[in-house]
Predict the structure.
Amino acid sequence: MDSRVGVQAVPALGPVADLPARSVARELGSFARRNPMAVAGGLVGLLIVVVAVAAPLVAPSDPLKTDFRRMARPPDARSVFGTDQVGRDTLSRVIHGSRMSLTVAFASVLLGTTVGALWGVASGYLGGRFDLVSQRITEVLQSFPDLILAMAISMAIGTGMPAVIVAIAITRIPFGNRVIRSVALTIRELAYVEAARAAGGSSFRIMTRHVLPQCMAPYLVLATTHLGVAIVIEAALGFLGVGIPPPTPTWGNMLAESLTSLVPHWWLVFFPGLAITVTVLAFNLFGDGIRDTLDPRLSPAFLRMMAGGRRA
Amino acid sequence: MRKYLLRRAVFGVSTLVGVSLIIFVVLRILPGDPLVAMFGLEGFAKLAPGDRARIMEDLGLSDPLPVQYARWMRDIASGSLGRSFFRGDKVSELILHRGPLSAEIALVSMLISWLVGLPVGIVSAFRPNSLPDNVARSASILFLAIPGFWLGMLIVLATLFWFNYKAPLVVVHLWQDPWANLQLVVGPAVVLGLGQGAYIARMSRSCLLEVILEDYVRTARAKGLKEAFVVLRHALPNALLPVVTLSGILMGFVLGGSVAVEQAFGVPGLGRALVVAVIERDTIVVQNLVLLYAVIFVVINVAVDLSYAWLDPRIRYR
């Protein structure tokens, strides 16, 4: 949800060369001291990613294996999160569900933010009619509530994983476009860009070599803050029955399947939702820390990044 | 001012034309055949090619795309919005039947978000980094992470389990039976309200903290006014401006979020209608409902812009 609120355009800064050099370890140390919650979020997020990657090794049993002698059992010693209506182990399904949720979230944010950012760079740097048309298109794309646009797109292009990724990615494009465009607008006016133009650099060369690197920091902030949003949208699509279809477990379609019994079993509702909440919380905390760190008014680390990514 | 209003209106309408074009294009590149969705694969196979063509003709799907688009615009102009593939109902009737419920949910949720978020934000800003502030901030961070539809499912489960209670499943309007209507509205409104309240609390806290540093607040304190008076009468009105904007933006989120939350509570609102139509691939219903959501979204944004001038007379529109 935290999409239109928060991330601000970052004013470009001149080169900052006189900051003292510090080692990466000390840099991380000071980041951890200033943002303990962000580090906690980052570590939990990392743990979830590791579990997702290693799902077949971590999960106690096969997420698709039904067992008709153990149907709809509440949590016990053999299946810690209980079993569903056809006897599949909920813990294993939650663990395997993390794969889908994280894959969709990372892929869609990467795709959407990158496309939006590149578009924004071109739109901000080139200006003129291209910019005008781009801004109108962005305006139109932003006139839909996220989830509803994603629903309509996934209805149109199908319900597999690639379709869901594309659907969510399209809803992320306007944000990347807007923010990065405003950065590109300020960078365009800087002396060194003018120098590059005077030296005869082509627009393409200036955009890729001189403007793009300066957009790295806001790009990273955007991408991390949108991870949580993407996870929630994916889960909501699955819950509404227009996401990745069963039997592949995702947190969203597990919640939807829990509703198929007249009185839903609490463990089938509680654990997938808890997984969503913990993951989103971890990513949000991490994203907040990244944003605080990369905020131009707060941190010398950001000044260095803006100075060209080198630890001068 | 009037000139500005006119320009905003023209701008808004042209955006909505773009929106309708996007919806139309997205929904007509559907790879699935609507007939398959209507009759199922077997039923589709049994249909003679002539019947298929005739039904497509009846549904108006065999015309060229510009003709179909023009027909949609004509349906909008006539107010009927076209008919559902499946039930043959007018979409306008569907909206009039279910819309009030969703609108009620949205408005009540906004009310709840202010009632909860603003006091929490003020208490937080009174003593930053105190215990109540930290509790409030942690709670708001938590509420930003909890998906509304999951919270809704948990509430439904809990009330069913402990009180053996279930909200009514049919549309009941406020003017028919206020008590039954309240039971339908309250659950989704609370869930959506708490979600927005978390943002409101966060925003009002940070805005208040910013305003409190201003000279005129220092002057008010120097006059010897009570701290509560300084915060509530002097600082708060100026701090509220960004919160109002945020609240408007959040209404846009509610439009999207309410679809899933209505599903979780089983409330037969507009969101449920959209979900059903998407699953049934009822293109006519989907295109109108999505457009309706976009219209509301755009209107809210314009209203937020205008509320600026009303709340802060320093702002002049040209």
Observations:
- The radius of gyration of chain A is 22 Å.
- Chain A touches chain B through 46 residues (CB under 8 Å).
- Chain A is about 65% helix and 0% strand.
